Automatic annotation (TrEMBL):
<keyword id="KW-0808">Transferase</keyword>
<dbReference type="GO" id="GO:0004015">
    <property type="term" value="F:adenosylmethionine-8-amino-7-oxononanoate transaminase activity"/>
</dbReference>
<dbReference type="Pfam" id="PF00202">
    <property type="entry name" value="Aminotran_3"/>
</dbReference>
<dbReference type="GO" id="GO:0017000">
    <property type="term" value="P:antibiotic biosynthetic process"/>
</dbReference>
<keyword id="KW-0663">Pyridoxal phosphate</keyword>
<dbReference type="InterPro" id="IPR005815">
    <property type="entry name" value="BioA"/>
</dbReference>
<feature type="binding site">
    <location>
        <position position="245"/>
    </location>
    <ligand>
        <name>pyridoxal 5'-phosphate</name>
    </ligand>
</feature>
<feature type="binding site">
    <location>
        <position position="307"/>
    </location>
    <ligand>
        <name>substrate</name>
    </ligand>
</feature>
<feature type="binding site">
    <location>
        <position position="53"/>
    </location>
    <ligand>
        <name>substrate</name>
    </ligand>
</feature>
<dbReference type="InterPro" id="IPR005814">
    <property type="entry name" value="Aminotrans_3"/>
</dbReference>
<comment type="pathway">
    <text>Cofactor biosynthesis; biotin biosynthesis; 7,8-diaminononanoate from 8-amino-7-oxononanoate (SAM route): step 1/1.</text>
</comment>
<comment type="similarity">
    <text>Belongs to the class-III pyridoxal-phosphate-dependent aminotransferase family. BioA subfamily.</text>
</comment>
<dbReference type="InterPro" id="IPR015421">
    <property type="entry name" value="PyrdxlP-dep_Trfase_major"/>
</dbReference>
<keyword id="KW-0963">Cytoplasm</keyword>
<comment type="function">
    <text>Catalyzes the transfer of the alpha-amino group from S-adenosyl-L-methionine (SAM) to 7-keto-8-aminopelargonic acid (KAPA) to form 7,8-diaminopelargonic acid (DAPA). It is the only aminotransferase known to utilize SAM as an amino donor.</text>
</comment>
<feature type="binding site">
    <location>
        <position position="274"/>
    </location>
    <ligand>
        <name>substrate</name>
    </ligand>
</feature>
<dbReference type="GO" id="GO:0009102">
    <property type="term" value="P:biotin biosynthetic process"/>
</dbReference>
Amino acid sequence: MTRESLLAFDRDHLWHPYTSMTDPAPTRLVTGASGSRITVDGVGEVVDGVASWWSAIHGYRHPALDAAVRGQLEQLSHVMFGGLTHEPAIGLARRLIELTPAGLDRVFLADSGSVSVEVAMKMALQYQRGTGRAERTRFLTPRGGYHGDTFHCMSVCDPEGGMHTMWSGVLPQHVFGERPPGLGGDVDAWAAEFRALAARHADRLAGLIVEPLLQNAGGMHPYPAECLQVFREIADEHGLVLIFDEIATGFGRTGTLFAAEAANVTPDVMCVGKALTGGYLSLAATLCTAEIAHGVSASDSGVLMHGPTFMGNPLACAVASANLDLLATGAWADGVRRINTGLQALHQIDAVDVRVLGAVGVVQLDHEIDLVKATEAALAHGVWLRPFRDLIYTMPPYVCTDEDIATICAGIAAAAEAG
């Protein structure tokens, strides 16, 4: 098929994320990728400023990750996980237990980030049932959050300013507190209000779910690490299951391997995904403590009620373990520090606010961005970006060079001016 026929078929038949089928946004054909760059047909090589939605942390075609997939293909590509197991899944679980905060030693391998959050919420609900508190069916969460697109995940996304407001009459109703203050904000005042809200609803709450340190698709909002200690204290005081959704923040993005480490806080349940496989295959995991696992097992079903078809896929597990091997070298930390330094240039852009945390840079404008114009302007400067609402952001691969980061900053400036 020609380039034109490929794009025509795509336009007429393929839905893309958050787009209309009757009036679709333009798409661009990608013909290759290597390192920090993707090759866009008609444009050429450009820096991927969003690392394939924050997942390709080591860039593309990394030799170690490529080799892991090829090697696993020669042994076993997939087998059902019901009643069977295999070395890649066991090895990955062992590595995750070693790397995550101490005590998270039970692992559920999911097939996407949204599914891992669904499983986490099920764990909390079943734990409460198993400990004799079946009436606890609601969740406490701060406004400004985003946890995925499946139904229970949508129910704990921001009900007013989030992407899922159209479902407000259909979704379960949960309890929303004020979002944490921004970096340098008044944590004490916010904490007092959040504690009071938790106390008022405690007898109906099963869990507390948060994105630690950085709320992502709900507004790219960083907040102080001491807020994580507040969440832990509230959960302990009221018997809530504390869930950290680290799907976007995990594996170094905010400056520590996991955002939980910034406050030395261990949640009861942790979700990881996105960068888990280095962007190669869809895989996520929900980790929990032994206490939570025992509570789930004591519920009326006696088992955790979930089991994806592609649970523990050997290819995904093999490349995830290779990805964790790369992270274990510690090289990611230098990359994140270098990116953080380079992203300080974003403060030169005329904007409502500029926020930089770890390998994350956010420029907030005073108007909703014209996605098409902003994207075209960034591409003209050699960068692929995906702005949303009033935000232009970057979460690039850790392998980006100083030149790459300078290019990203120039692309963001151009997008801000054009959009």
